[in-house]
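Please predict the structure of the following assembly.
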Amino acid sequence: MSNAAVAVRGVGKRFGETEALTDVSFEARHGELFGLVGPDGAGKTTLFRVLTTFLLPDAGSATVLGLDVVRDLWAIRARVGYMPGRFSLYGDLTVAENLSFFASVFGTTIEEGYDLIAPIYRQIESFSGRRADALSGGMKQKLALSCALVHRPDILFLDEPTTGVDAVSRSEFWDQLHTLRESGLTIVVSTPYMDEAMRCDRVALMQGGRILEIDPPGEIGSRYPLPLVAVTGADRYRLLLSLRKAPHAHAVYPFGSELHYTDNRAGLDPGEVASELRDYARGQGFGDVEITAIAAGIEDSFMELMPAPVQRAS
Amino acid sequence: MTAALRAFMIKELRHILRDRQTLTILLLMPLVQVVLFGFALRSDVRDVRLVVVDSSPDYATYALRARFAAASRFRVVAVEPSMRAVEPLFRQGKADVAIAFEPDFAARLQSYGPARVLLAVDASDPNTATTMQAYARAVITAYEAELAAQRGQPLRIAPETRMRFNPTLESVNLFVPGLIALVLTLVSALMTAISLSREKERGTLEILLVSPLRPWQIIVGKVLPYLGLAFANVLTALLAAWLIFSVPFRGSLSLLLAESLLYSMVSLALGVLVASLTTSQRLAMLVALLVTMLPSALLSGMIFPLASMPAFLQWVSNIVPARWYLIIARGIMLKGVGLEYLWKETLVLGAMTLVLMTAAVRSFKPRVA
């Protein structure tokens, strides 16, 4: 028995021909804010459904709070707070009615859970008589979080909680998650956004149903498989197009004022790549380029996960 | 856990009460249907427009014409010397029935031979045609009896009817039980299917499923408020039938209500099954209409008599719950019989409830494989 809040070992799940999860393993510690980061279709939602006992895994095993997701489903269900990806509240019920319904489902009342949800719920309490349908995206999200929290769960699963929410509300939402984590709550959250991944304690990068890497967000780049250099120069757009046609170019993306160039020859010294690329750029008429070898950051890893954009310049 | 169930039912009740338009329709439906169906499918006719064809008027034809003129249901609109004039009147919709006396009607009557009359009936509406024909024959028979009593000897009038076909005689009395079945099906099966699949579509069902609520609690919480609505509908339909059409109610009201509850349960279970087997609200609605409403209306014996159906459809009608409910409701309302005659049908409905409810709960898995 593991003392991790979530322990996943070799979980696999397929839907017909599609392998939604393949040999997924990770642990989230008690009190940790753990992020699952990856593009749409990476398997994040399927993983959440396995962890919340909604889906049976085909292979492997998983425990939540030390309880087996297959065997102990009813014990897990009473102690988990879950916010699915879509806005899953009753639009024709008021804010207060939604909250009190979900409290009753878990055998509790708003009053009993009030101090936990107060920092979030207070912001929408003045609308408690309003139908949930009539709330803004940010307010709906606060209500959904309140509903997931009102029974004082020991662990919180949030599946892309900020999708479709404005930037200010997103940032506020993450402030609230941090407040909740301070109180000792374990939170597992998925997100397609990089800035949100940076605010997790640790993140697991997911793609195509697999976990590629698990690290604190600041260290995520350390296992970047290919040599990477930063390029600056005038006429950035033309430079970008030109570099993408370089003989060994794997990917070129703009990052702030720089361009990040990834070479497709693994194991090659980045210094060598830099000098080679400098010659290439000069040959293409970019005399003033500055090229330095750099270590990959989470953003580079993240871009690597994204489906390759069509970049055929005719 | 009972608190959770209560909360669920309150939530469900709110869904129902909030949606004012749907609620209004549901509450008024039995009334509107009883009135519409009642008037539209009435086969008793009040104002029969009669054409008399009398080529050789004599005392006997006058006497019979006077009988018709005196009958409250008949109104003589024309007297013609020959049948030729009748056809245009029928076509223009100005007459319903024509009665033609054979020449020398009185003489034939005197000589104790059968005196023949021809009854031509506009049979474009077969239901009313049958009724009108029956009325006309009643008048003739009464006159025949009167004559026979005067003379002390039987005098025969032989009416001959000309009509395209001859369906069974239906009336509003037979119809009201069928209507109740239809309304119950609609509210129970269709509305539960829609409401449950809405939760599925909106994603709220996923939260409910991974909550500590057990599947049976979700189903019971979903179904009970609709049972209340169904109850209200039965009462409305009965009241409307009684007030507007004076449909008799001969049996026990509480027995009918109990049987209606049983029938609602069958329909509710069907609704839950449909919702758990379909993927969207729209699909759930269509499937519910197809598997509950249509058979209830067409294969229950409500509109078309089962006896006149092909053997295959008669066999299929056995699995239509409305068929059994209809026998029960007609038995209670029109014949005034009790459980001692209806226990078999009640058992069938009970078995259907059991099977379908079990299937519904089982189809409603607490998790997905």
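The radius of gyration of chain B is 28 Å. Residues 172-202 of chain B form the longest helix (31 residues).
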